[in-house]
Every structure is written in C-alpha cells, then in structure tokens.
Automatic annotation (TrEMBL):
<dbReference type="Pfam" id="PF06209">
    <property type="entry name" value="COBRA1"/>
</dbReference>
<dbReference type="GO" id="GO:0034244">
    <property type="term" value="P:negative regulation of transcription elongation by RNA polymerase II"/>
</dbReference>
<feature type="region of interest" description="Disordered">
    <location>
        <begin position="558"/>
        <end position="584"/>
    </location>
</feature>
<dbReference type="GO" id="GO:0003746">
    <property type="term" value="F:translation elongation factor activity"/>
</dbReference>
<dbReference type="GO" id="GO:0032021">
    <property type="term" value="C:NELF complex"/>
</dbReference>
<dbReference type="InterPro" id="IPR010405">
    <property type="entry name" value="COBRA1"/>
</dbReference>
<keyword id="KW-0251">Elongation factor</keyword>
<protein>
    <submittedName>
        <fullName>Negative elongation factor B</fullName>
    </submittedName>
</protein>
<keyword id="KW-0648">Protein biosynthesis</keyword>
C-alpha cells in the first residue's frame, strides 16, 4: 500500500479493525490464498445473517463487492451525521455533550481517514469545548486544521492570537485595498461617490461578513480583532480601520449577537450614529442622544473615549458631522444667530474634535476629550458665515437694476485669518474643506475660485488627501463648462493641483482621473501643456503610468486625421449666414 492507501486506513488498527496491511500480511503468510480471502471477508464483512444468502445475487448481476460496501458505508455515514446533529440538540446539556465526547474519543483516531473524517469533524463542530489535546493535534496538522469547521477553529484561535492574526491579516489588507480602489475609481460622479452606499449595504461586504462569521459569538475573538484594528490604525494612521471597527460592531448588531453587543460599551452610541450616517445628517433628537452618551462617560471609565473617538474618526462619521455643520451654519445665517449660541452646532464640533483626535488619544493613552479652541467658534465659523452672506449679497446685487457705476464685482480676496486657520487648526481645516465642496456642488464658480488659493497649504496637507480629492473631482464635474476657460484651468491646475503633483503621487493620480473624465472640455492649449506636465517620471508608480497611457490614448483618438485638416480651405472672410430650412 502506497502513502495514499495508508491514509485511507489511518487509525483502524488502534480500534482493532483489520485494514489493508492486515490482509497483505494474511496473504503473504498463508498456503491457500482463496480460503484466506473468504475468511477475511466473513470476519470483516457486514455481519447480518440474512445478508449472506443475498450477496451471491449481487455477484450474478456483476456488482463488485466494493461498490456494495461503499454504498452501505455512505448510507451509514449519512445516518451517523444526522444522528450526531440530533444528539447535539436533544436531552439535558451535560448528557448530550457527554455522548458527543464519548463518540469523539472513539472516533478521533480515524480523523485522518478521508471517508470517516466528516463524522469526526461533525462531532467536534457540535462540542462547545473540544478537549485541549484534540485541538492541539488538529492545530499541528495543516490538513486537519483546514478541514475543521469554523466552530472548532474559533476554539483554537481564542488561545492562539498569532494564528488568528495570520487568518485575519489578509482580510484586513483586502479591505483597505477595496476602499482605496473606490477612492481612485475611474468613474467620477457627483451622484455615486465614496459615501453613497448606505451603512447596511457596506456591511454586506465580503470582508465584514467573513470577519463576522469568524468571530461568531466569541467575545475574546471580537476583542482580538479590535486590538488588531487599533494597532494597525496607530501604525498606519489609515482611517479606514476606524470604518471597519464600526461596521463590524453593526454587523454583529444586525445579527442580534447580544453576547458581544451588550459588552461593547460603544454599541448604543455606534447604533445611533449609524442612523445619522444613513440619513447623512444629525437631527436634534439623535444629537441629544449622542450627547447623553458622551456626558455619561463615568469617572474611571474614560478609556471608552478611545473607542468612541475611533468610531467618530470613521470617514463616514466625519462626513456626516461635517455636512451637518455646514447645514447648521447656513441655518444660523438665516436666523441671525452666532455659532456660540447654538448648542447643536457645538455638539457637532465636539464630536468632530473627538474623532479627529482619535489617533493622538490612542497613541498617548490619555483618555480625555480634546479642548476646543474658542477662536474656532468665535472667529472661524463667523468668517465662514460671512462668505455665505457675501454670496447672498452678490446675488441680490446682480438682480438690482445696474446704475451708472456698473455691477459690483464678486469679492476676490480672502481674509488672511481664513488661510491661517486652514493651516493650523485641524477642525477648522476639515470644516473649511467641506464648505469648499459645498460651494462647488452648488456650481458657485466665484466662491470656489476665491477660496481655492487657501487650499495650497492646509493642516497636515488635508486638501491633498484622497477622500477630499475624490469628492472634489466628483463635484468639479458640475463645473465642466468652466474648463473651456483658460483662466479657470490655470487657477485650478497651476494654482492648486500642480503645486503638489510632483511630491504627492496620489494628487497626480486624481488629476489624471479628472482629465480622463473632462479632457474634451478643457481648453486645447491648456490640455497640451497639462499633458506635458503630467507625464510620468521614472519614479512614478504603475497606477500613474496606466492612467497617463489611458489619457494619451483618448487624446490620440480625438485628433483629426491629417487628411481632414488639409481639405478644409482657410477662410479669412466671414461667411454669410445661410438660413437652414428649419429656421425659415
């Protein structure tokens, strides 16, 4: 028997059941092989008296004994598997597990036998606590480990963080890659962007579903995953890990896994915030609920702020808080109210501040809410409101009958303090960027060009972050017709994008994405110079080269063929207009 044969019979000898080796030995040491075979068959066949007379019938029909035994075996195995699953549900808890443990003890020696393995695995799957010794044997054998059910793997993982880490790590990498692929997607649209999918849709993603299944109801494994996410967030500052932290908790919430939800102190806060993210707005009722959770953090439990800050650092949470802030500011303009007089607005700032401070809090392990700078509320936000007022004033002016002095121009300068705030204050920068996204979405070209210079230098280069550029490129498609104007292109490309293109590869990618989408609108002379400027260097990554090649191909297709160019005679004189039939 070769190694394959040996595996087929693994463990039979320990149970005192004859196997292929025994038959080989019998035949080697006997004088009458046929008699020896017959005896072996009688001793090891199915011991049913009524069967002995029926077997010759099968011989007459040419059915091999192997086929018969195999079908009996398959039938019995199915029955046994059904029985194991039934035992796991019947009788008193101790009794049923005692039966299964006895069965495991008897059958475990056959675990490597392919035909019996499913039964052994099934028994283990239904045991809430597989004996330690058996788990170690499974863990030590790659094939067995691979074959066992996730219920058994959970028992192995909970005491082997490194092994669990090896299983989770590729999933986390895949998750980050999926997020980045959406941010750099070639489909640029104001309607379908990174933040379009609802929380419930996002939680159906492959990685979240796999992690949810791996964790089951096991609090220890859930805590391990959270620890991995915290560590990776600290190591990389990548905010998508914060999204996964919230999505995982809400995925367990969807399945009503109270064993975990009730012990995660962030559960109710995350649930409430999840509803706000779904609506892309924090309404007054939920605002009060969220405030209640923050105010309810008791002395000695401050560590929960680290987790809450991570939940608030999720870009989907920041997006919701920032959009709500802009909406509140507009409402305050209409109500003649100052920011400091609006408790709702102050709560939004408090949560933004907590979210933006997540990395520092987890890094320093100092769990207290970051202090809000008074000037953010007394100077910066009123300044943003004054921009809203400038727009209203300009629009009203445009509608008034113009007097001799001519139309009033749109204010072109920005207060120096605005630029300074965007450079030095993280919350101000975040809100300022969302205000710029807001005016772009409103197709407000004047306001956009006025504030654009402030984006060249921002806090921690936030204006060149992928999420902002992904949203900005989407919103710029609404200003598509402005790209025909050289002046607009110079302000946008030379004044903003190209200032960072050479030092930041991601900016290079976003500019190419935008041009791939809008190249047919861009002023030809400008397009030509951009094509030269954006040419990849030796240091450029594959993604940039690929995008640049796509752009070059598109531009080649647009060029008229030489034949067409020569055939068109040059007309110096203006042609007389000939009325077409339709216009008569």
């Amino acid at each position: 028997a070769g190694p394959g044969q040996a595996a087929m019979y693994a463990g039979l000898q320990e149970l005192g059941v004859a196997n292929g080796e025994d038959l080989k030995e019998t035949l080697t040491n006997c004088t009458e092989p046929l008699k020896a075979i017959e005896q072996f068959q009688t001793e090891n066949g199915v011991l049913l008296p009524s069967l002995q007379s029926a077997l010759p019938f099968l011989d007459l029909h040419g059915t091999p004994r192997l086929e018969f035994h195999q079908s009996v075996f398959d039938e019995l195995r199915e029955k046994l598997l059904e029985r194991v699953s039934a035992i796991a549900l019947e009788g008193k808890v101790e009794e049923r597990y005692k039966k299964l443990e006895d069965l495991l003890e008897k059958s475990f020696s056959l675990v490597k036998m392919p035909s019996i393995q499913p039964v052994v695995m099934c028994v283990m799957k239904h045991l809430p606590k597989v004996p330690e010794k058996k788990l170690k044997l499974v863990m030590a054998d790659k094939d067995l480990y691979k074959a066992c059910a996730v219920e058994v793997k959970r028992q192995i993982w909970q005491d082997n963080q490194a092994l669990f880490g090896d299983e989770v790590s590729p999933l986390l990498k895949q998750y980050i890659l999926e997020k980045e692929n959406i941010l750099f997607s070639n489909d640029i649209s104001v309607l379908h962007n990174f933040f379009s999918p609802s929380p419930k849709t996002r939680r159906q993603g492959e990685v979240v579903q796999k992690l949810t299944q791996m964790i089951g109801k096991n609090v220890k494994l859930y805590d391990m995953v959270l620890q991995f996410l915290r560590t990776l967030f600290l190591r990389t500052r990548n905010v998508h890990y914060c999204t996964l932290r919230a999505e995982l908790l809400m995925s367990l919430h969807d399945l009503e896994i109270s064993e975990i939800c009730t012990v995660d102190p962030c559960h109710k806060f995350t649930w409430c915030l999840d509803a706000c993210i779904r609506e892309k707005f924090v309404d007054n009722k939920r605002a009060r609920e969220l405030q209640g959770f923050l105010d309810g953090v008791k002395k000695g439990q401050e560590q929960v702020l680290g987790d809450l800050s991570m939940i608030l650092c999720d870009p989907f949470a920041i997006n919701t808080l920032a959009l709500s802030t802009i909406r509140h500011l507009q409402d305050l303009v209409g109500q003649d109210t100052l920011p400091r007089e609006s408790p709702d607005l102050l709560l939004l700032l408090r949560m933004l501040s907590l979210g933006q401070g997540a990395w520092d809090m987890i890094d320093s392990q100092v769990f207290k809410e970051p202090k809000m700078e008074a000037e953010l509320i007394t100077k910066f936000l009123p300044m943003l409101m004054s921009f809203v007022v400038d727009d209203h004033t300009f629009n009203v002016d445009q509608k008034l009958p113009s007097e001799e002095k001519g139309p009033i121009p749109y204010p072109s300068t920005i207060p120096e303090a605005f630029t300074k705030f965007l450079q030095e204050n993280r919350i101000a920068c975040e809100i300022g960027l969302y205000y710029i996204l807001h005016i772009t979405k409103q197709r407000n070209k004047n306001a956009f060009l006025r504030l654009l210079p402030a984006l060249v230098e921002t806090f921690s280069d936030l204006a060149f972050s992928d999420i902002f550029l992904h949203l900005l490129t989407g919103n710029l498609t609404l200003l598509g017709d402005e790209f025909t104007l050289e002046e607009f292109c110079t302000s946008l490309f030379d004044g903003f994008f190209l200032t960072a293109c050479s030092r930041k590869e991601n900016v290079h990618r976003h500019v190419l994405r935008l041009l791939l989408h809008l190249h047919h609108k861009v002023a030809p002379a400008k397009l030509e110079s951009l094509q030269k400027t954006l040419e990849p260097t030796k240091q450029s990554g594959e993604a940039v080269k690929e995008l640049y090649n796509q752009l070059t191909e598109k531009l080649e297709l647009r060029k008229p063929s030489p034949a067409e160019v020569t055939e068109t005679p040059s007309m110096e004189l203006p042609l007389p207009t000939v009325p077409t039939p339709a216009s008569r």
